[in-house]
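Protocol step 4 of 6: record predicted structures for both targets in the notebook before any analysis. Target 1:
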Amino acid sequence: MAAMAEPLVSVIIPAYNAAWCVGQAVDSVLAQAGVPFEVVVVNDGSTDDTAGALAGYGDRIRVVNKANGGLSSARNAGIRVARGELVAFLDADDWWLPGKLAAQSALMKEQPDVGFCSVAAEVRDPDGALLGIWACPQWEGSFLAALFHENAAVAGSGSGVMVRRGLFDRVGLFDEGLGSLEDIDMWMRLAAAAPYACVSKALAVIVKRPDSMSRNREVMRDAALSVMKKNRCLLPSSLQGAHWRAGMASVYADYAKWRYRAGRRLDAVADVLRALMLAPWARGRLCLGLLRDLALGRPV
């Protein structure tokens, strides 16, 4: 479907040196049916031929060219020019399956209280092999509280989420000061402002690449801790104590495993001890088990 004069959905695709993949992402959006939409590709200072890869689409897409500023900066540039009532995000190296926009748009129409939603996603390797399904989360009570214990709860994340554009006026744009996990930070802020929902059918494809940002575990660790600390104030006061500390302890414990696998045994032990001190009751058994495994050289 070609871009419409009055789009319901603005699809934002940040692209940096994405000449090799952005075409598949754009094509998967243009193949969506049943919903008026526009496609906004933000060329974030690419030094390859991303501009050339986009030129052939003509007026079927809008291209925003800007100096390189990172993923959050590119997404924010797209939000600022978006014309749709709804904003959907897609990373340049992922793509959508047919019916994605229609399913989410229908959900948002049927549930007007929902501020943002996502879809389940297929996770594939660069050769196309299916690695698994990123399913919709299951939670009880506050979804915001659940996010503090399971950061990856929002299925599809940066390639699966759709947001009511007006909600950004309330929560702000993506944090350009974070080196990673800016999406988790945004989902927490959105969840504090409005309900979340998820389409259970896998309608996005996430490509897991060895050289992706998510492989830089030290950057992710620092960002995860920053996001948890920054957004503690969003929780109800009753959850800012033990609940938040248990979430922080889980972050330390998770990244302790990665540090151990990377050969940083002392750093791993230090993180487990931090986790134990934060939440001895809620995470004590987990931490003591990890310390035992690290001491015995067992795989974790």
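Target 2:
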Amino acid sequence: MIVSVEIYHAVPSRTILKSVNGRFAAGELSCIMGPSGAGKSSLLNSLSGYNYKGVSGTLKLNNQIRDEKLFRKLSCYIMQEDKIQPMLTLNEVMMFAAELKLSNGTLTKEKQMIVTEIQNVLGLSESKNTRTEFLSGGQKKRLSIALELINNPPIIFLDEPTSGLDNVSSTYCLQLLRGLAHQGRTIVCTIHQPSASMFQLFDHVYVLSQGYCVYQGSTDQLVPFLSTVGLHCPLTYNPADYIIEATDGEEQENIDKLASAMANGKQSLCKTRDINNCYLTEDTTKVSELLLPELNGNVVTSKLLPLPPINYIAGDEVDNDEDDDVVKPGNTWCVDFPTSGWSQFCTLWKRMILQLYRNKIGLNIQFYHHLICGLAVGIVFYDKANDGTQFFNHMKFCMGNILFHTFTQSMVQVLAFPSEVKLLKQEYFNRWYSLRPYFLALQLSRVPSIIFFSSIYTALVYFMSGLPYELLRFSMFNIICLLVCFVSEGMGLLVGSVFNVT
């Protein structure tokens, strides 16, 4: 699969990408590099479709204009920050991902086999029963890649995959991506300034500076190309460091010369092999052996699942007027999501319940918060609610209970939901699930804990305040408090999704 691009990206204050052109072929590990502020992340966001604001231009797959909805099903975007559920084990996270990303017709045993295979290939099998919060930075990055490999996308975008990793982990991560790319995938990542050894792992390099493409081609052609424009890289110098220093913001003359020589990305200095034949067809989707060097120096031979045939890219037409939920014969990529809404809801609800009730610290804080506040309010209004003539005491008692439930439930979501939104954005963008099952599961997963903790508080304040010991009145009081809790939680979700207060 060949991705061709011509993009112009502008924001109200300045132009970030200036009509750059480029090409990323299947079977190659490609990197976008350049100085800080060169437009690397902006280009990657435009390529993946993560951010269209202020972007104009064309993006083609195998010389065909990209269908945005189909492209999102064929690709995945792994962001710089590893967003993973912290309370789940590595194997549980991958199994939940398999439940969401693989079709309902796939048996659980088959899903586990796929998960196990990916764990073995990525060197994660020894940590499969470890909670993700205790994984190292390199393991978290490999887990992020593993989660997206479950449905075997042919196009993978990564933003700074080596960020925060040591040299050994960074090298291993790039070797892994290189092996995956050589199976026929199109893998594009951004990287700031790789070492000389890591730089040689890339098959294709796309260098940006001040929004212009100053080089596009293979790593071994970079130094000869620089020599043709009068820039001579010393033999002992890292070519990646040299071109970044040569195209720094203060070197405008070098930027102009390089961008002109590259025709702003229209020219490409490739290896001798013909990349015009890198189209992804059924011939390139056979299972190939993947050789990956382990961290201890041993070489492990493993196999990944074959890439699915993508008839649309090879030239088949797709009728966009048809319902997206209808599966056409011979084209299994026309479904928005691989699983039904009910299946998504059940999987997300189980994941949220498991995550919620493994958070022992959070549960203990809520328990003692409701217990202590209930005792405090009960002591303040002790035996004052049994006198109907004390109107103001009754009003203060009712308002105090309403305010307690309002702030307690809303603040939990205001503080917790912004971090959840980051995970939601990534998983929804990569087409794991739709929003309706997610929010339904989010609301219902909180119901048991809200009922339990609210009942502790209401029982304490009701009986300590001296209200009549009548089941009907106690039930009405409890139900009203619960309704306030549910409304307040919705308010907290609204505020937490709009404003990041953490």
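Step 5 preliminary note on target 2. Residues 3-84+140-280 form a domain with the Rossmann fold fold (CATH 3.40.50.300). The longest strand covers residues 15-24.
Proceed to step 6 after PI sign-off.
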